Amino acid sequence: MSVEAISWALNLAPVPADRRGQPSSACKFVLVGLANHAGPDGSGAFPSVATLVRYTGLSERTVRTCLDRLEAGGIIRPCDPDLVAARIKRADRRPKAGTWTSPWPATTSMSPA
Asked: How many domains does the chain have?
């Protein structure tokens, strides 16, 4: 868990807009769930979709839609499969392609304003 990543997700992340033009609370909640698994630099976050569903109380479809929207917006990016393999030794416990992500792009500054 990274306080820095969670703080970024709650306060600084450019969350995609919902249909009313407001930041999507569902996408923000999914991003906070991802940040809960990240290191201080935002890397190494790869919770399962099932874990994000459990955290958020959202449906699997909504969580997957939010992940797609966050990735399309450049807020998250796919995690390196080699990194996942190095951290999760059992192949049957590793994510399937496209289901794991890592919070914030490397270009995002975590410095206080």
From this structure: 1
